[in-house]
Specification:
Its EC number is 4.2.1.33. InterPro entries: Acnase/IPM_dHydase_lsu_aba_1/3, Acoase/IPM_deHydtase_lsu_aba, Aconitase_4Fe-4S_BS, Aconitase_4Fe-4S_dom, HAcnase/IPMdehydase_lsu_prok, Homoacnase/IPMdehydase_lsu, IPM_dehydratase_rel_enz, IPMI_cat. Belongs to the aconitase/IPM isomerase family. LeuC type 2 subfamily. It catalyses: (2R,3S)-3-isopropylmalate = (2S)-2-isopropylmalate. Pathway: Amino-acid biosynthesis; L-leucine biosynthesis; L-leucine from 3-methyl-2-oxobutanoate: step 2/4. By secondary structure, this protein is an alpha/beta fold. The protein has 2 domains: 263 residues, Aconitase, domain 3 (2-Layer Sandwich); 146 residues, Aconitase, domain 3 (2-Layer Sandwich), CATH 3.30.499.10. The protein is 32% helix and 17% strand. It has a 5-stranded parallel β-sheet, sandwiched between helices. Helix 3 packs across helix 6, helix 7 runs parallel beside helix 9 and helix 12 runs parallel beside helix 15. The longest helix has 17 residues. The chain is globular. The termini are far apart. Bound molecules: 3-isopropylmalic acid (IPM) and iron/sulfur cluster (SF4). The site of 3-isopropylmalic acid has 8 residues, from loops.
């Protein structure tokens, strides 16, 4: 298509978001200087961004807009080392000095707290010093992870350079069977296209299966967009989005144009089985029925991928009244204080505790092996999180399998990786 044709074509959701943020028509492939709507840092990467900010802007400098910065504590909470405690102190002091919205150690995982507290709205451009910032695209925002040095300049100027990404639309049609979840869909997609299959693309999840999904289910998929290399994962805002955001949404959300230019790939999920990513790659994905017997030492039900109320509820329902299998350690961590309270009121916390699991306060927990709940050499972890590379959850001689909350629930009571449809 010639230049004329291109300029006349409609725009993708991402192109529209960048056009608004850059205050000029933005097309895929172009470089733009864009205004940031919200910038998030957390306890691990935050201190570096703060130090970088003072280096760039000078001692005593003020951030560009304190109301657009969110600081969260989630990776090492409650502080698990003196270093972590010092990082927390430093961020609290910075927040106080700059007048920044500051959530303390028990609010939950940044990627859950941001959307549930109204810091993410459709059409916004959001950056965070964490690779899973892409999660917020479930609400129709363009959200992406950036480095701490880039964040330092965002703090100083409120702007950042981007290359507007091409869009890959992942059209997912069909009805998911009982106990098959959006986690199985995203694992299958990553297994099919590979861990680098969507490098620097804006992945738009669409199709009848996505339309039927809740925000929690959509977040599981946008969360894992980075695991196939995507710059962002998005879902066009619809009625589900509007309902989730009713407290905060004041205007009609923007959507992409029908005649926009994008690549498209299709999946039919009518017959999809529960999927598992085997060690040590997220794209090493097989249907659970094709796994050999895999005995597990530890189960982690939580993380920004699958630590929401719906996830806990599904795992609990699959477990029924059965106890956690002998010799298995099950760690349950609700993704946020709000999700914890929902689980508490629904009796799920009691149910997990009675079954022999342990329920921890909202945080990242064992997800990245940087805090508690590590596995030892030769041990196998089954985890509802998003990464399983060597050493991710502790010993480099351990193994991590990734799965849905339904598979986690089924496996908790059998002690080996189990198809939840057989329980
Ligand atoms: C600590 C942080 C930089 C990291 C990320 O960016 O993803 C972590 O959250 C992870 O999941 O590995
Ligand atoms: S839960 Fe895991 S993936 Fe999510 S932000 Fe925390 S460490 Fe990263």
């Amino acid at each position: 298509m010639g230049v004329m044709g291109l300029s006349m074509a409609g725009q993708t959701l991402s192109e529209k978001i960048f056009s608004r943020a850059a205050n000029k028509e933005a097309r895929a492939g172009e470089f733009v200087m864009a205004s940031i709507d919200c910038a998030m840092i957390h306890d691990i990467t935050g201190p570096l961004a703060v130090r970088g900010f003072y280096e760039i802007a000078g001692k005593g400098a003020r951030v560009w807009n304190p109301s657009r910065i969110v600081i969260l504590f989630d990776h090492q909470v409650p502080a698990d080392s003196i270093k972590a405690a010092e990082n927390h102190q430093m961020l609290r002091a910075f927040a106080k000095e700059q007048g920044i919205i500051n959530y303390d150690v028990f609010s939950g995982i940044c990627h859950q707290v941001m959307p549930e507290n109204g810091h993410v709205l459709p059409g916004q451009l959001i950056v965070g010093t964490d690779s899973h910032t892409c999660t917020y695209g479930a609400l129709g925002a363009f959200a992406t992870g950036i480095g701490s040095t880039d964040m330092a300049s965002v703090f100083a100027t409120g702007k950042l350079w981007f290359m507007v990404p091409q869009t890959l639309r992942l059209v997912i049609d069909g009805r998911l069977r009982r106990r098959v979840t959006s986690k199985d869909v995203i694992l299958r997609i990553i297994g099919d296209i590979g861990a680098d299959g969507a490098n620097y693309l804006a992945c738009e999840f669409a199709g009848s299966a996505v339309e039927r999904m809740s925000i929690a289910e959509r977040m599981t998929m946008t969360n894992m967009s980075i695991e196939m290399g995507a710059k962002a994962g998005l879902v066009e805002p619809d009625r589900v989005t509007m309902t989730y955001l009713k407290e905060w949404l004041t205007e009609e959300p923007i959507r992409g144009d029908e005649d926009a230019i994008f690549e498209e790939k299709h999946w039919d999920v009518n017959d999809l089985e529960p999927q598992v990513a085997m060690p040590h790659r997220v794209d090493n994905v097989v249907p659970v029925s094709r796994l050999p017997h895999v005995k597990i030492d530890q189960i982690f039900l939580g993380s920004c991928t699958n630590g929401r109320f719906e996830d806990l509820k599904l795992a609990a329902e699959v477990m029924g009244d059965e106890p956690v299998a002998r010799g298995v350690r099950m760690i349950v961590i609700p993704a946020s204080r709000k999700e914890y309270m929902r689980a508490l009121r629904a009796g799920l916390i009691e149910k997990f505790m009675e079954a022999g699991a342990i329920v921890e306060s909202p945080c990242c927990g064992p997800c990245m092996g940087g805090s508690f709940g590590l596995i030892g050499p030769g041990e196998v972890s089954l985890s509802t999180s998003n990464r399983n590379f060597v050493g991710r959850q502790g010993s480099p001689k351990g193994e991590v399998y990734l799965c849905s909350p339904a598979v986690a629930g089924a496996s908790a009571i059998t002690g080996e990786i189990t198809d939840p449809r057989e329980i």
